[in-house]
Amino acid sequence: MDIRTGLPVVGMVGGGQLARMTHQAAIALGQSLRVLAESPDDGAALVVADVRIGTHTDLAALREFAKGCDAVTFDHEHVPNAHIAALAAEGVKIYPGADAILYAQDKQRMRERLSALGAPVPRWRPVASAEDITAFAAELAAADPNAAAGGWPVVAKAVRGGYDGRGVWMLDGPEAAAELAATGTALIVEERVPLRRELAALVARSPFGQVAAYPVVETVQRDGICVQVLAPAPELSEARAVEAQQLAIDLANALGVVGLLAVELFETEAGIVVNELAMRPHNSGHWTIEGARTSQFEQHLRAVLDYPMGETALAAPAVVMANVLGGEPGGMSIDERLHHLFAADPGARVHLYGKQVRPGRKIGHVTVLGDDMTTVRARAARAARWLQEGTE
Amino acid sequence: MDIRTGLPVVGMVGGGQLARMTHQAAIALGQSLRVLAESPDDGAALVVADVRIGTHTDLAALREFAKGCDAVTFDHEHVPNAHIAALAAEGVKIYPGADAILYAQDKQRMRERLSALGAPVPRWRPVASAEDITAFAAELAAADPNAAAGGWPVVAKAVRGGYDGRGVWMLDGPEAAAELAATGTALIVEERVPLRRELAALVARSPFGQVAAYPVVETVQRDGICVQVLAPAPELSEARAVEAQQLAIDLANALGVVGLLAVELFETEAGIVVNELAMRPHNSGHWTIEGARTSQFEQHLRAVLDYPMGETALAAPAVVMANVLGGEPGGMSIDERLHHLFAADPGARVHLYGKQVRPGRKIGHVTVLGDDMTTVRARAARAARWLQEGTE
Predict the structure, then answer these.
(1) Contact A26/B at CB under 8 A
(2) Residue B120 has pLDDT above 50, yes or no
(3) Residue B97 pLDDT more than 60?
(4) Structural domain A195-389, CATH architecture
(5) Strands A318-325 and A362-370
(6) Of B308, B347, B364, Cβ closest to residue A30
(7) In chain B, is it the N or the C terminus that has fewer CB atoms within a 10 Å radius of its CB?
(8) Would an 8 Å CB–CB cutoff place B316 in contact with chain A?
(9) Amino acid B392: pLDDT
């Protein structure tokens, strides 16, 4: 409780753009987000009044950070699970809890749990060697008469630490499998799902157990990085949308998630399967800042503070979020690009994360709202290109 | 220019809720607002990373504050005009400039200038004594056969420093006039306009000269304080709306305003007349945070930085902002009230200003969007009551 305002204090571990945007939501609720940042130059540290500098792997720093917080939550999933459990045991309200966030930290545990729950997942296997990978591929080939020779390619994933396409490898044969296995990385392998597209279902759950579900979105990927999010997912049947939302709700309940849960899905001809879980504000939900009645950032705060959840309805028939990646050095400055974008599209909503521009790095996003998805999508792509390259 | 981000630094003099909400807009634009606050407990100082403590009447403090700012602007209109002129002479980009903000600081100069420009204003007069006031009332009586005895009541306004109903007096006769005149306050008097309702026209103007106009709103007043803003103003004819917008655009150009200009208007049977001018984000524009494509706070930043202006279109057919005033001490805490409101109306958008609750003080506002003005208005009123009194 902040005695100056009579309102709660939420601490967020990690000082990236998610904390930065959560602070905007906190301000509206009368709060001031407390942030544990690695550096005073982190995106959130540049804009937040209550910044503590420290590392998320340092239990003493986390303990100190948590003092006086009504709830502690995360900008990322890299806080050691044992630290989260230790803080909870000491009475800190830390969400999502260790028993839940485990499934966003460890892909093997996630696959095991989802399989046990009967949730739709790709065929998968934990593997300890190149031989295990090759054997898995052979099983795929045996099970599917249409499979390529030997069942290749298969998808290998690091059990821990991957994101934004990192920690995921498409293995095209035994040689690639041997090379990866030689790194000693703990791995699982999965069938390559014949996906039509990727979807995401975002829900928020409070300690009380209320769950609010956002409209299901399509996430458009390029080189393993999400480049656009389309809300609502175009031409998604009502039945499939409800199925995806219900799956996310069921998982939030079964895993005991408190806060946001983003369920990344593959849509195939046959149905949906779960790709990944994230338990924090998620790139697939940035569109909610303007595109939904309650942003995912406010929703996450409401959830971890056990406030009733906010309305999730769309604010316009078509909403598109496009990520802005850093371009090559040289050329126009980001400020010049912003001038041009504002002139070109006065309705584009810009979010910049306070990061130094580096090629391929997510430095911001743009959201466009409108009536027609095709038009809105083209505008969002154009706006992101303006900020990214300064050319059209 | 912030070398960490390559984006500009705006300094705002004053640490109240307008600076607090401007910071939210600055974050989206990749910026971090610099704030000159009187106290570290000011609403904006609680949430802003770059806070300087100082007083707006201290030229040395203003000069120090302006160093490194790409533009300096205001949360209120109380910075001495000579200080603004001095800083501008030293090369500070300070907006609105001294020659413009004068008309938001000095009601007599404002009335003189508007009269000279041919803008519609009430009949008015600068007065130096009770006799002057009585003579003005007598003139009103002589001009209007329907006027009450002696032309009373008349409206007296302090030339400087009034806001939110303070600095405005309804004088019902010579005795009240004498009492007020005895205080030595510099005054103008005006006819009491037979108003049907109050409107506000909000525009933003950049140094380049681009002007963007928001939809005209109705401002609902109680005891001299704005309690609700209805966007768009219900049942306002297209012709009257265009007239009000054009008037605001013409005034912004004629006065050389840079940043926001709010023109508070009386609507009468005969037309519109200008009540007051404000040159900063304004209570009548808080609805734009969710209700317009570009919030007034972002628009103000874009204007003072000479970015192209953002789209001003409504985000929903009906938008209502209701101010939340502090209630009597005792009863439910603000946090408990928030729980109840969120349960009662998951779609209400809440903005709390980080202020200690005091009876009658504006501590926040609530915005509701929807399709039907009557429904939306009732929801907004109910939401504000929940936060204000904790009862329905």
Answers:
(1) yes
(2) yes
(3) yes
(4) 2-Layer Sandwich (3.30)
(5) antiparallel
(6) B364
(7) C
(8) yes
(9) 39
The mean per-residue pLDDT over the stretch B55-65 comes to 98
Tell me if the domain spanning A123-191 has CATH number 3.40.50.300.
no
What is this model's ipTM? 0.96
Q: Provide the residue count of chain A.
A: 392
Q: Name the percent of chain A lying above pLDDT 70.
A: 98
Above 80 in pLDDT, residue B115?
yes
For residue A47, which residues of chain B lie inside 8 Å, CB to CB? 23, 26-27, 32, 48-49
Closest CA to A264 of A356, A171, A200, A341: A200
pLDDT in tens, A168-212: 999 999 999 999 999 999 999 999 999 999 999 999 999 999 999
User: Is B93 among the annotated ligand-binding positions?
Assistant: no
Mutate to test the interface with B, among A18, A41, A46 (most CBs of B within 10 A): A46
Residues 343-362 of A with CB under 8 A from B: 343, 346-347, 349-357
A316 near B CB under 8 A:
yes
Using alpha carbons only, give the angle B310, B314, B317 rounded to the nearest 5 degrees: 170
To the nearest whole Å, the CA of B164 is away from the closest chain A CA by: 22
Strand B217-222 and strand B211-213: the pairing is unpaired
B165 pLDDT above the threshold of 70: no
| Lookup result for tokens 């570009």 | B294
Tell which residue, B27, B31, B88, has the closest CA to residue B63.
B88
Query: In the β-sheet with A34-37, what is the strand arrangement from edge to edge?
Result: A50-53, A34-37, A10-13, A71-74
| Residues B182-208, mean pLDDT to the nearest whole number | 95
Indicate the CATH number for domain B197-389. 3.30.470.20
Domain B10-94 has CATH 3.40.630.30: no
Q: Which of A212, A309, A333 has its CB closest to that of B6?
A: A333
pLDDT value at position A163? 63
Q: How far apart are CA A43 and CA B342, in angstroms?
A: 30
Nearest residue, CB atoms, B24 vs list A27, A51, A310? A27
Does B338 contact A at CB distance below 8 Å? Answer: yes
Q: What is the CB neighbour count within 10 angstroms for residue A29?
A: 24
Average the pLDDT over B95-111 and give the result. 98
| Confidence at residue B162, expressed as pLDDT on a 0 to 100 scale | 67
Average pLDDT over chain B, rounded to an integer: 95
What is the Cβ-side half-sphere exposure of residue B147, based on CA atoms within 13 angstroms? 20
Residues of B whose CB is below 8 A from A315 = 290, 315-316, 369
The answer to which of A217-231, A232-246, A301-315, B106-120 has the lowest mean pLDDT is: A217-231
pLDDT for residue A76: 95
Q: Which residue of A has its CA nearest to B8?
A: A335
Q: What is residue B51's predicted lDDT score, i.e. its pLDDT?
A: 98
What 8-state DSSP symbol labels residue B142?
A: H
Q: Is residue B88 less than 8 Å (CB to CB) from chain A?
A: no
Residue B96 carries which DSSP code?
Answer: S
Which chain A residues contact residue B349 at CB under 8 A?
Answer: 28, 293
- Quickly tell me which residue has 């466009």 as its tokens: A368
Q: What residue of B is the nearest CA neighbor of A370?
A: B315
- Residue-level pLDDT at A165: 65
Q: How far is CA B354 from CA A12, A30, A295, B46, B242, in A?
A: 19, 5, 20, 7, 37
Q: Which amino acid is at A210?
A: Q
Asked whether the bond before A153 is cis by omega within 30 degrees of 0, the reply is yes
Q: Does B308 touch chain A (CB under 8 A)?
A: yes
pLDDT for B145: 80
Query: Measured between CA atoms, how close is B86 to chain A, in angstroms?
Result: 28
Break chain B into its structural domains and give their ranges. 10-94, 123-191, 197-389
Topology agreement, domain A10-94 and domain A123-191: no
CA distances from A30 to A27, A329, B81, B363 (A): 5, 40, 32, 9
A286 in B contact zone (CB under 8 Å): no
